[in-house]
Design a protein that fits this description.
Number of strands: 0
Order of helices and strands: HHHHHHHHHHHHHHHHHHHHHHHH
Distance between the termini: 61 Å
Structural class: mainly alpha
Shape: globular
């Protein structure tokens, strides 16, 4: 078998000529078919079979090509097994650009004649060696790819709109991320390691079940954007009311569970009784703070969904700075503890909810939404409820697989010791900040793409999605570079404990690398979801999380007893797999059909 493999690779890459056998040379077959087609057209004057001839000229798929080479009417010369394998591999590669061109044309993209070999190309083609048959070796293919990249990167009206919506989201996500890290720093440096452990571990444990609750609220970005694109503003208001009620109802088991189980859960990780009691007191306040804050967030979505992105960003920025100023003043000027901070969080959540209710009713900007938002009992609209639930269920599963994965991995970190649990929670804070940056661009892109689909413009939706991917990748690389540049100093901003600092510092480079894969994969997941296909994207996330990340993490922690770096590496590998699958789903989308389905659903 080694000899076969070596011979096959030599035939592939040595540059020697391939045997000129019938069925081996795609260009020779295409050239022959075109000439036959011309002869038939000139003799009969009919073009009824043009489509079939063109399909034949485009080449067979990899399986059919191999069969045709081995079982044609004419007997092939004797070849080695390795040579036959190498020819099949080359023919497989040759079908890739053909398949992509056929798919893009079916999706409504303008046909590009350069995607297929022209008659001049066939006449001038010289089979000097198998390397010329690789599509990436042809300058024409490279030039075509570069033109498409230049079209996506062009700063046109769509780019301006994406920047107009995305930049405020990006700015506010950076501010929110800095505020989260600042809050952790204040707790860790001012209150001490015990309070820091309680703060981080409680937030991580609550996140395990909280990931089950985010689907209804997160679904608003998709369903409301599609309704707004179809000019159904009252329906969008109904969606917001439905999602908020569903979230409150789903939060009841979450609150009951952690009201009684948080202390045993904390002590399971090896923390003492004192830490367990402090965690219980803090959790019973934080549960209601999170509930009120999420309801306020649902109402706040109306601002940027309707296009008031600057207003939304200004309000959120003011809230963040007021909160940090009050927290700093309270911690440094008064004798405070973690319980006082929990009460402060609840007070700010209540104030934010009241402000959003008053502003939506008094500003006059959202009068078209108010009949559905406050003027009716939206749960009576069964069609709207079905749309929200159908969108929220796969998103909930996706949240469990994507964001709940990090919280589940804390159970494996618990096998390494209490210090590793706290360090894992701090790494989660850093990663969550990076995710917020990605999600901010994803929210803007999802709104834009869903509105184009709802308006019946699939080509604009596709271009917007591709531009968003490019923009998001640039931001992700810059964010990872920033984390790498500060990886020696960042742990000292979070805690004064030397052991925790070292654990975090060793894992940050892998977190920065994983953020790049997370960025592309997460936005591809968001774009597929904006098409209303969250079920498909959720399956892809399941493959990456449960078939790659978690099995690897279990092996690393239980079998080999590796440290936190191995856990982070498992997460990175899982993101690579799920991101690849979602990217393939996005690039192969039938945008015309999806747009028709979205329009029909929004008008129902």
């Amino acid at each position: 078998m080694d000899a076969v493999f070596t011979a096959g690779m030599t035939a592939l890459f040595a540059g020697g000529p391939r045997p000129r056998t019938k069925g081996n040379n795609k260009y020779a077959q295409t050239k022959m078919n075109i000439r036959k087609k011309k002869g038939q057209a000139s003799s009969s004057g009919s073009t009824s079979n043009d489509d079939d001839d063109e399909d034949d000229a485009e080449g067979l798929d990899n399986g059919e090509q191999c069969v045709a080479s081995a079982s044609g009417n004419e007997q092939l010369p004797q070849e080695t097994e390795a040579t036959t394998i190498s020819h099949c591999l080359v023919d497989t590669l040759l079908t890739v650009p053909t398949m992509c061109t056929r798919r893009n044309t079916a999706d409504g993209e303008e046909s590009d004649s350069e995607g297929e070999p022209s008659e001049d190309d066939l006449e001038n083609f010289q089979d000097d060696g198998c390397c010329q048959n690789f599509f990436w070796c042809r300058p024409r293919i490279v030039r075509k790819a570069m033109r498409k990249v230049a079209k996506i990167a062009k700063y046109d009206s769509e780019s301006k709109e994406l920047f107009r919506m995305g930049f405020p989201f990006l700015l506010i996500s950076i501010i929110y991320g800095a505020a989260d890290i600042g809050e952790v720093s204040i707790v860790g440096l001012k209150l001490g390691t015990t309070e820091l452990s309680v703060f981080v571990v409680v937030e991580t444990l609550l996140g395990i079940t909280d990931s089950l609750l985010g689907g209804p609220i997160e679904s608003l970005v998709t369903v409301c954007s599609q309704a707004i694109g179809a000019k159904k503003y009252s329906r969008a208001g109904s969606y917001i009311q439905i999602a908020t009620i569903l979230y409150v109802l789903m939060s009841i088991p979450h609150i009951v569970l952690w009201w009684f189980m948080i202390a045993p859960g904390v002590k399971w990780f090896g923390f003492d009784e004192e830490v367990g009691q402090l965690a219980e007191r803090y959790t019973r306040i934080a549960l209601f703070s999170d509930l009120i804050g999420e309801c306020s967030n649902a109402l706040h979505m109306t601002y940027y969904l309707h296009g008031y992105v600057i207003t939304s960003s200004v309000i959120e920025t003011v809230e963040v700075f007021v909160w940090l100023a009050a927290l700093l003043a309270w911690v440094y000027l008064a004798d405070t503890d973690l319980i006082h901070i929990a009460y402060m969080e609840m007070g700010f959540a209540v104030a934010s909810l009241i402000f959003n209710i008053v502003f939506l009713n008094m500003s006059g900007w959202f009068d078209e939404y108010l009949p559905g938002l406050f003027g009716s009992f939206a749960l009576a609209d069964t069609a709207a409820v079905k749309i929200v639930v159908r969108t929220a269920i796969p998103m909930t599963v996706g949240h469990v697989l994507t964001y709940g994965e990090w919280e589940i991995l804390i159970l494996l970190a618990g096998l390494l010791g209490p210090a590793e649990v706290t360090a894992w929670g701090l790494l989660g804070t850093i990663w969550e900040t990076l995710e917020m940056i990605t999600n901010s661009i994803g929210d803007a892109a999802e709104i834009r793409c869903a509105q184009w689909l709802g308006a019946g413009k699939p080509a604009a939706a596709r271009l917007s999605a591709y531009k968003s991917l490019l923009f998001c990748m640039i931001v992700g690389i810059v964010a990872s570079a920033g984390i790498l540049a500060s990886y020696k100093h960042l742990p000292t901003w979070l805690t004064s404990d030397v052991v925790l600092q070292q654990l975090i510092q060793d894992s940050i480079p892998l977190v920065a690398l994983g953020n790049i894969t997370l960025t592309f994969g997460s936005l591809a997941w968001t774009m597929v979801g904006s098409q209303g296909r969250y079920r498909l994207s959720t399956v892809n996330v399941f493959v990456g999380s449960w078939l790659v990340t978690l099995p690897l993490a279990v092996v690393f922690a239980v079998v080999f007893n590796f440290g936190l770096e191995a856990q982070v590496a498992a997460v990175v590998l899982g993101y690579m797999v799920s991101g690849t699958l979602n990217s393939a789903a996005l690039f192969r989308s039938d945008w015309k059909k999806i747009s028709k389905d979205v329009m029909a659903e929004s008008s129902s």
